[in-house]
Design goal:
Layout: H1 5-35, H2 40-47, H3 51-60, H4 67-76
Helix pairs in contact: 1-3
């Protein structure tokens, strides 16, 4: 069973989804600490990002100086 292509595909999708959720949780915690509670619309936009975009955001947020920087980043991605 573990060698089946379908099993491996399901397993990989689960791992990828788990990685995305973990990265999303860290980003939201960092943003909350940086600027306080986040507007639900902005949080929803962040949650809809794909894994590559979340990785980009995790690096970009280190350069943010205010919430407008986040908004600009989201508008450009």
């Amino acid at each position: 069973m573990q060698e089946s292509v379908v099993y491996q595909d399901i397993l990989q999708k689960g791992i990828t989804q788990g990685e995305k959720q973990g990265e999303l949780a860290v980003i939201l915690r960092l943003l909350h600490r940086f600027c306080g509670p986040i507007n639900p619309e902005i949080e929803s936009r962040i949650q809809s990002l794909g894994k590559p975009q979340l990785e980009e955001l995790s690096e970009a947020l280190l350069d943010f100086t205010n919430l407008a920087d986040l908004q600009q980043w989201l508008d450009s991605h």
